[in-house]
Amino acid sequence: MTPKPPSKWLMAAEMPRAIFGAVELVVKSRGLRSAPRGDGRPVIILPGLVNPDWANLTLRRYLRKLGYDARGWGLGHNLGAKSTGADGAKLDALVHRVHVETGRKVTLIGISLGGMMARLMAHRWPDEVAEVITISSPFAGDPRATNVWRVFEWLTGERIDDPKVRADTAVLAAEPPVPTTAIWSASDGLVSGAICRTDNCRSIEVKSGHLWVQMRASVLRAVAETLGQSRQIW
């Protein structure tokens, strides 16, 4: 069965659920302190559509407190190719610079559109990318199984039927040659949870809407646990 966009009811509930999630984070913040400690590895957090680095401040601060070298992407608001340059050249340069600067492979965490970009980087630079964690990223299916594909086209100037975009979409669904984890929600109001994971990657389901998903306590914990397990394996 072809995945469909989330219902209008779920989409309408996005903002109230986002506010609830922010309040919940305050209540559950103490419990997040027991997450596995970090090992200083570089982590770049890629924002969602139209979001800037400050949208991920909570996640970045949390990972820094755990002991990771967590960074924003420094490319302003995420407007697709308008932000990353022709064929993603600015993002390529960012991954390479952090890899050379730290002498370590880079972990990429991407929210929504940022997660799709993270997977593309892993396909391109498997020798420089250690791991990819996507959060509510619709990388595994038709973009029309979202309620935001028209907004994406309007903001970025890209068209989902463009041959280049279609080619990238096909690559996204293929598993990169690095460990990947997909954090997703079946009750997401903007993107279908069915296209936010595949059978070939580790999948973690959370209960959340799409807006501010990176601020949900369950998501922060899932990210920390995933990084902690990676540390043990390595």
Structure description:
The protein is α/β, with parallel strands linked by helices. It has one domain (8-26, 38-229): 3-Layer(aba) Sandwich (Rossmann fold). It is 41% helix and 13% strand. The protein is built from 9 helices and 6 strands, in the order ααβαβααβαβααββα. Strands 2-1-3-4-5-6 form a 6-stranded parallel β-sheet, with helices on both faces.
Comma- or semicolon-separated keywords:
six-stranded parallel β-sheet; 6 strands; alpha/beta; Rossmann fold; 234 residues; 13% strand; globular; 9 helices
SS field, number of helical segments: 9
Helix content: 40-55%
- What's the number of extended β-strand segments? 6
Q: Distance between the terminal alpha carbons, to the nearest Å?
A: 38 Å
Q: Secondary-structure element order, as H and E?
A: HHEHEHHEHEHHEEH
Task: Give the rounded overall mean pLDDT.
Answer: 95
Point out poorly predicted stretches. none
Q: What proportion of the residues form beta strands (DSSP E)? A: 5-15%
The biggest beta sheet reads:
6 strands, parallel
Let me know the CATH homologous superfamily: Alpha/Beta hydrolase fold, catalytic domain
- Looking at the structure, the CATH topology is Rossmann fold
**Nearest-angstrom radius of gyration?**
16 Å
| Second rung of CATH, namely the architecture | 3-Layer(aba) Sandwich
Strand order of the largest sheet: 2-1-3-4-5-6
Task: Provide the CATH top-level class.
Answer: Alpha Beta
Shape assignment: globular
Q: State the secondary-structure class.
A: alpha/beta
* Number of separate structural domains: 1
